[in-house]
Amino acid sequence: xxxxxxxxxxxxxxxxxxxxxxxxxxxxxxxxxxxxxxxxxxxxxxxxxxxxxxxxxxxxxxxxxxxxxxxxxxxxxxxxxxxxxxxxxxxxxxxxxxxxxxxxxxxxxxxxxxxxxxxxxxxxxxxxxxxxxxxxxxxxxxxxxxxxxxxxxxxxxxxxxxxxxxxxxxxxxxxxxxxxxxxxxxxx
Length: 188
Description:
CATH class of the largest domain: Alpha Beta
Shape: globular
Helix content: 25-40%
Distance between the termini: 29 Å
Number of helices: 6
């Protein structure tokens, strides 16, 4: 099957098959582990997932998407680089762009910045983890690696309904595909 984005599935059918095969394994996949297992970038792995699991927005939509994420009642910010992982839970701080750099202006523990031109793409990812519903917004660099991700957070051990609704609405608005129903989460 040809990839609607770049045709890489057709050019490298073994990669698409390996992502499909990996998903059939009974293990808790995260995007990075799935990509490493298949020998491809995280962005390529996301493109090879079934359509109901992923939808893409352009990198230039970062500021608008970030502003909506900041309204979530609960989120988890994750960044993993070179074997080190950093995770922060709570309300994501807003910020502002100054000369091409977006500064996170948090009053709490989370602060920092990102070069806006470094964000090549954004993926709204719905990849179950350990059999549980999991949604995240993945921010990719030019090499197809995840710079950082923001996951819909949990409230009292359950995924936040308002943050989930916001995630799904953004996915429908910012991406070429319309809003969706996720078959794997429908009540049986």
